[in-house]
Amino acid sequence: MKKIGFLMFTLLVTNISSYSRFDFIQEFREISTSIEESEVSYDSDNLNLRAVNLTLNSCESFPYFGQEGSSSKKLVTSIEKGLRKLGQCFENKNVPSYVHGKMNKLVSILSDQEVEKYITCNFEMANSYIAIATTDENSDSIVRYPQIKKHPGMIINTNRVSGNFPLGMTEQQRENTFNFYGGRIPFDIIIPGEINPAYHYISNPMSLVIHEMLHWTDTVHFEEKYPDIVYLTQACCFDQIGLDEEIKSAACESLFNHDLYQENEDTRLRQIEESGVRNLVKNINKDLHRVSNETRNNQ
């Protein structure tokens, strides 16, 4: 898939009906509470979140590297509060079966203590965020990105989150960065820790983490047969700099519009085409990635 800010590789689609149906709103609340109350254990630069069997590797720079207070514990808090907010977003809503199935699957993955989950931070300079959905250990995605051990795994580039060049860049890495952008960024402004003009910072890191977790449910961006519920959920359920209330309201309307998820494929595709939801998602994607570093510095 072409990289468009949030990067996602998916090679295997799992039948969501194979997962038990949960009251996922209550389950998100309970998982969030268990994360909040559970102890974490450190092993070298790893933090293990026992409540959901999730290992965070090299995430002391989350969410904005180089800033006071950045730490892996902030990532734990983002997961805890993000899941709680996700559940609140769906309260008292008539949720389409397709969307319900995806949320059930995320609950199943998170609540299964036998499933080891991984988040690795600080991955290279020129990459974004990658969530692996496939369980095939020989998949191209996992082969290309050995930092992700297996599904469900995730990479968060905290340089990209902060919108800066890495603090520890070597001269060779500066040259590599210059070459990566084809000379579009002058070499003399590629300075460790300074703003990368090709990046936009993430105004709500909590929503980024939940966005990537939703990919664990084998949900891809811009697929043809269903609306992109990852972007719709992010826009509907989380406040973002750059997203106005009209876009947020439209995202919620599409997320809970049963016509867009109906069983008959021909009718569903027609409804999707007539609704304009694909253009809505493109606008969400654009707006999420137009938040400048200057905007952040003025907050």
Plain-language structure description:
With 299 residues, the chain is of the alpha/beta class. It is built from twelve helices and seven strands. The chain has a domain of 182 residues. The chain has a seven-stranded mixed β-sheet. A hairpin with a 4-residue loop joins strand 3 and strand 4. Helix 2 packs across helix 7, helix 7 runs antiparallel to helix 8 and helix 8 crosses helix 9. It starts with 5 loop residues before the first strand and ends with a helix.
Give a quick summary of the entry.
The chain is an alpha/beta fold. The chain is about 40% helix and about 10% strand.
Strand content: 5-15%
Tell me the radius of gyration: 19 Å
Morphology: globular
- The number of helices is 12
- Secondary structural class: alpha/beta
Mean pLDDT: 83
> Are there runs of 5+ residues with pLDDT below 50, and where?
1-22
Q: Number of DSSP strands?
A: 7
Percent of residues in helical segments? 40-55%
> How far do the termini sit from each other?
34 Å
Instruction: Give the helices and strands as they follow along the chain.
Output: EHEEEHHEEHEHHHHHHHH
Q: How does the major sheet shape up?
A: 7 strands, mixed
Going across the major beta sheet, what is the strand order? 1-6-7-5-4-3-2
State the main characteristics.
299 residues, 7-stranded mixed beta sheet, 7 strands, disordered N terminus
List the helices and strands and how they pair.
Layout: E1 6-9, H1 24-37, E2 40-43, E3 46-49, E4 54-57, H2 72-90, H3 97-111, E5 117-121, E6 129-132, H4 140-144, E7 153-156, H5 158-162, H6 171-180, H7 205-215, H8 229-237, H9 245-255, H10 265-275, H11 277-288, H12 293-297
Parallel strand pairs: 1-6, 4-5, 5-7
Antiparallel strand pairs: 2-3, 3-4, 6-7
Helix pairs in contact: 1-2, 1-3, 2-7, 7-8, 8-9, 9-11
